[in-house]
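User: I'm putting together a teaching handout on how multi-component assemblies are represented. Below are the sequence lines for each component of a complex, exactly as they appear in our records. Could you produce the 3D structure of the whole assembly as structure tokens, so the students can see both representations side by side? Please keep the chain order the same as the input.
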Amino acid sequence: MSLSVKHLLGIRDLERQDIELVFQTADQFKEVLQRPIKKVPTLRDTTIVNLFFENSTRTRISFELAEKRLSADVVNFSASGSSVSKGETLIDTVNNILSMKVDMVVMRHSASGAPHFLSQHINVPIVNAGDGINEHPTQALLDAFSIREKLGSIQGKKVAICGDIMHSRVALSNIYCLKKLGAEVTVVGPPTLIPKHMEAALGVNVTYNIREALAWADVANVLRIQLERQNTPLFSSLREYSLAYGVNRRLLDSLQKDIVIMHPGPINRGVELSSDVADSGQSIILNQVENGVAVRMAVLYLLAGHQQLAN
Amino acid sequence: MKTILNGTQLAITIDRLCHQLIENHLNFEHTVLIGLQPRGIYLSDRIYHTLQKLLPATPIAYGKLDITFYRDDFNKGTALHVPNETDINFSIENKRVVLIDDVLYTGRTTRSALDAMLDFGRPGSVELLVLIDRRFTRQLPIQADYTGRTIDAIISEKVRVLWKERDGKDEVIILE
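Assistant: Of course. Below is the structure of the complete assembly, with chains in the same order as your input.
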């Protein structure tokens, strides 16, 4: 068994079996992470570079931990303080790094499609750690893995993705992933933050009413408002957004059922999610973070093994 | 195809291995059994249940160990292995560990298992129990402490252990 792809550029390219293989492998890595010695020697002859052209806390630490738990050698790179600011191109930067015998690339970039572009020019496996407003595949995998862990399966489950759908790579990857695993997906947010034609293009339901979406859902994945990607104002104020679309205790109590609350982080407390909800027993936000390491270990393991088969 | 052990012989052999274990470990107070995934666990399940029948009042620690992440042939051109469950919910610190596998061939699985096992603690001692020992094929200096049957088979021949739970019948065969 191995993945049908050489790179993990997006969930769009994956088959359902690929996702299930990642989960099956991640289950075992999760067990490894519970041991007194949380490390296996599998990738001891592999060097991985983490290329972060955009800010990150969770994803970067999660990838680095995953790599170290697999015994890989890790090189970290961030755009600030590098030769990128001297005008070096992406391909030149990466080729220079690869000529120092690096075996895998994990990349985050603010330009959508940057890892896809890179994959046409270099030979080693690339893992997309988020590209612009396109995809963030490992986040979607760990989100689905966390739902599966909490609810037993994904098939037939109802998931509401709430907030800034337009600028969220997490939303797009989650939609692909959940649909491939047989879940029903509703996106909810202000009309200005939901792209047109989503229903037809991706097979999701669209609503502009958060209460209606949460009353329908088993799981709510609440997204952050990506102010850094909004060039023109798309809603009047954060306070107004919070009043209309913020998920808070009173809203959840009015639903008469307990739904699972998720958030990919970082949370803007009091904007899209209130603190009491984020820290409640309904929230699996920290489980998501914990599962992130196991899921990323699985992705790295499967891609490293796949590369060797191809050779 | 040649049958090495039929169902009855297999049952007798497993009984004998269990008695040998009791001979050396008596009350199993400091002993833990660890079956190796994926194929060794059918044997270790049988051994565990037989021991439980022979010693009904004795609790015996029994776990399963997967060695996928410790293999020495990852990225050496062999197929990618999908990992199996590891289930060791006890400490092996200073315990007498009995590793259980179905066939001892090159010894590489056992080596990986020793590596994997050490991540759960430092055992007092380690023994190896196998159903079939293929002689003269070892690539590492490893031998079994308890052996069901020793056989001579050439490299092109394959030894298959069939289990009722998985294959519908109990049998050990050699395929050309």
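A couple of points students might notice: The mean pLDDT of chain A is 92. Residues 167 and 226 of chain A are 6 Å apart (CA to CA).
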